[in-house]
Each structure stands twice: as C-alpha cells, then as structure tokens.
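Reposting from the mailing list since nobody answered there.

I have sequence plus structure tokens for a pair of proteins and want to know whether others read the tokens the same way I do. The first protein:
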Amino acid sequence: MSKTDPVRLAVRKTYKLYIGGAFPRSESGRSYPVTSSKGDFLANAAKASRKDARDAVSAARRAFPGWSGATPYNRGQILYRVAEMLEGRRAQFVAELVDAGTGRAEAGRNVDAAVDRLVWYAGWSDKITSIVGAANPVAGPYFNLSTPEPTGVVAVVAPEDPLLGLVSVVAPVIVTGNTCVVVAGERAPLPAVTLAEVLATSDLPGGVVNILTGSTAEIAPWLASHMDVNAIDLTGVTDAELAVACEEAAAENLKRVLRPTGGTDWSADPGTRRMTTFLETKTVWHPTGV
C-alpha cells in the first residue's frame, strides 16, 4: 500500500436471527458478546426472546405443508445443494471454528465431515420409507400398510459442537419432512448464523429451518411448552435440571422427546435413530378386492 492509498475500514459482519427465510434482529433489541477461545471479542450475536421463539414456530408451521408435501427425492436434492453451498464457503467455516478453539487441521476435517453428513442424509431421503415402512400380514382379505410420516414442527437444542454437531441434529429432522426451530450453541453461535446464510441461498424454502441464537436456558423451556411444537430434541441441554423441566413441559401436549445423552461422537456413523425419532407411523387397511 502506498502512502497515498486511503485507509479502508473493515466491514464488520452483523449476526442476526434466521426466521422464515429472513434475517431479523431480536425483537427485544438484545445482543450478547461472542469471544474467541482466547477471550478476544469476535462479534455481537442476537439474543433471541420468547417472542422470537414464537415467531420461529409460526414460520416453521407455515412451511410444514409445503415441505412435508414435497417429494423425498426433491428434499434430497435440496440437502445435496446445501452440502454444495457449505463446501463453497469452507474457508469461512474453518476460520470460525478456529476462532471457537478448534485446531486448524481439525477444523478442516469438521467442515468436510459436515458436508459429507449432509450428503449422507440426502441419500436417505427416498429410502427411509422403504426401511421403516412395512406391508403387514393380517388375518383377512385386506392390505395392511404402515408408512412413516413427519411429526411436524420440531424444536432442536443444538450441541456446542458448532458445525458438525449442528448439521448432525438438523439434517435428520428436515430430510424426513419436518420443519424445525433450532437453538444454536450459546458459546460459539457464529457458524450457525453462517450456516443460515448457506440455507438461505440453497433452495431450502423459508421457514423449514429457523435458527435462534442466545440463552439456551431462556429459550428452550418456551419451545418445550409451546403447544404448536410437536417434538423436541434436547441434545444440547447440558443442565440436568433444565432437561427435566423441558421434558415435563413437553408432556403437556405429548411431544416426542429426544433426551440428551452427553459425550456424543459426532464423527461416528449416525445411524437412522435421529430420523425415525421424529416420524409417526400411519397404518392403512384396504380391501384386497376379488
């Protein structure tokens, strides 16, 4: 740079919520500082409120008919597109994971694993029905068919693993036709906001995934007690008392609950459990005819 070149100020990124395909600030106007693993200031993240959680649930409910009615093949195509877009921003995700305290080599492996995880779930989109569904033998002149259907709106408390863990809890929920409201990891929320930007530019309809940043202890109970939430994944709840309180609140409208297990190895083969947990089984009887 020569002495005559103007000094340019960096354009600081504004981190917002992701609700209904848009990026609003919290209605409360609150934010909280996000720091690196070394304590350096990185950004101010929006601190979602109860009203933001309600708005996110409403957006997820509006998106549910269209998303659940899409063909499984189409949902798989969109998840694959998300993987493409995520890989295209690999350097940015690596930098954010490094800021969160992950070694650079490990951060690169985590981003690659997140891309692979999305591709893996995309491949399951048109196969899970064949694995979970069944033609049941019955004593009578009937066909008896059991087929899986999405549960509805799923609240997801994401783990503190800011990318691979996040992808590993969101992808199985949406690939089967559910929509979701995600509470991002409180300590390192920036990769979640960047993932929201990926989702917004990858053909995923607005409202299918809604991402809130802020206090897990504040937001999770409201989602657990919300009467228009059909299921809740408590994976990211590390406080035992909070987990119990959320389960008790979820019982009010018989939500499906995936309990926190702790110590999950997100790089391991995930299996089908997270997909089948948020599926309902519909059984149909039909005369065989003559």
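The second protein, same order (residues first, tokens after):
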Amino acid sequence: MTDKTDIVDLITGHRRMRRNRKADWTRRMVRENQLTVDDLIWPIFLVPGTNVVEPIAAMPGVMRLSVDKAVEAAREAADLGIPALATFPNVDLSLRDDTGSHSLDADNLINQATRAIKKAVPGIGVITDVALDPFTSHGHDGILRDGEIVNDETVSQIARAAIAQADAGADIIAPSDMMDGRIGVIRQALDAAGHQNVGIMAYATKFASAFYGPYREAIGTSGLLKGDKKTYYIDPANGTEALRDAALDVEEGADMMMVKPGLPYLDICWRMKDAFGLPVFAYQVSGEYSMIKAAGAQGWIDEERVMMETLLAFKRAGCDGILSYFALDVARLLARKG
C-alpha cells in the first residue's frame, strides 16, 4: 500500500482538528453549547393606560406596553416557551419624587402588571426590580440626600417595595440598585412576610456602563438623571472588586446572580460561575441590542446571525440564561428550526 502520509500529518502528530468540522452532522454531534428557549428571559417595559403599544425610538422593535398589552405579550411568550418576563415601569412623572415613594404603592404600575400577568398566564415567571430609579425625580436608584445616594435608608425602602411586589405575585425579586447589604435585608424581609418561596436574582455585578442609554429612554429617566451612578455601580475596570461584590450577595442569600451589561463582561460571567456555582444570568442590555439593530438596519452585519452568536457566547461563558430584548425573535426562530 502506498504511504499517503502528508507532511501535515507529521507536523500535527496525525491530529487534525478539521475532522470534527467536516460535515453538518459532525459539527452538530460535537457542539459544546446549545441555545434553547429555556435560556431566555424577556424584559418588557410598562406604561400607564389601556391599549398602549408605544415604540421606543432608541430600541427599534421594542415597545412600551400598557398592562393589558403586557398580558397579551406574556401569553405570546408563554406560547413560545419563554420561561419568564422581567418587567420595568415607565412611571408618570407626577408620581416621581426625591425618595421614590411610589415604589411602595401596592397598586403601582409594576404591581398591577404582575397581578394581571400572573392571573392570565400563571405558568410564566415574573421577575421584578425594586431599584428606585423609575420612581425618583432625579433618576437615581436610591434616595438622594444632600447630593449623596444614601445606602441604608434606600435598602430599607427597597425591602418594603420587595414585599409589595411579592404580595402582587412576583416570583423573583431582582434588585438592580447595587446598595450594600440589600440582598440580606430583602431576604429577611421576604421571609418575615411569609414569602420564603420568592427567589432573589442579585444584580451581583452591575457596572457603571455606557451601554444603558436606550434603557433610560425607555423608562423615562434619561432626562432626569442628575450626575452619574459611579458611587454605587462597579467601575468597568474592576474585575476582582466585582467578584467580591458577588461573593457578598451569595453570603447574604442570593438564589441566582446576574451580570450587567452582558457581552463586554463575559469574563465576569465565567469567573462568577466558576467561583460560586450558582445559576448565572447575563443581561444583554439596551445598548448592546440597539447597536446590533442599527448595524443590521444598515446592512453592515447579518442581524439574525449576530443576534444568535452573541446569545450563544453567553452560554459558552457559563451563563444559565440571558435577559434579552431579542427573546421573542429568538424564540420564534428556534421554534421554526425545531
């Protein structure tokens, strides 16, 4: 038999990486990570009123929804198999004040939506945020006193808001405010109110990022924000500090953890999953979404492929799921391919 050994065989020691890539079936057979509908959490924006579907200019394809329309959206999401929604209210300016006191109203917009969604679509999860920025007149996540976001008073208030949200039927409380001690205080408050089964998804590492702009337009805080949030969000340069912050949330009783923003912080996703073993989620934030949509609209990228590739990157980085404004589009695409 003629020896057909090639010099490449000698150089590689007869190991050729392309063997497993030679056909579609082999690529599928050895694929390490899969994106499924079970990985998706869909963030939606709420507005007062009835029959309102209001486009958000900075987020093409994303709408602000009145509660009745949010219920319809929840039904569609559930029919597609999306496990959970995350709700964010755009509160009327007349209801916002320096302390975000309307967050404590049992009948505020976010609690109205929770009750309506859980009544109409009981099988879908509802994740709510207790940060005060949708309720404050200054756009900060906490109470502003003499130019400072006061930590302990804010924590006390968001713990009370968490109880109101749990009373309304929220399945998971996801505090995004980044105040010190908030996870432990919220856990104690929920348990004392009889909500032992309500989980906490800690925004364990939320960075002082430039990627949040379109979101602030969506909840109506972009024109309100005085100063910045660098005294309570994490410096984007700091990975070790982020892990320390996450460790405190774990010690205080977080059930699951989130990294926000997503794609620029894949290293943090991996480090958190490796360090703590809790379920880890990434939030593909508004800036990430809008950049993909804008480039896709210009024809500079294949929007659908980039959308799917970025979400798969989160899975490869160790994430158990992703909060994404693409969730509905992805679920439809997966359903067609299935």
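Reply #1 (J.P.):
I read it the same way you do. The first helix runs from residue 7 to 12.
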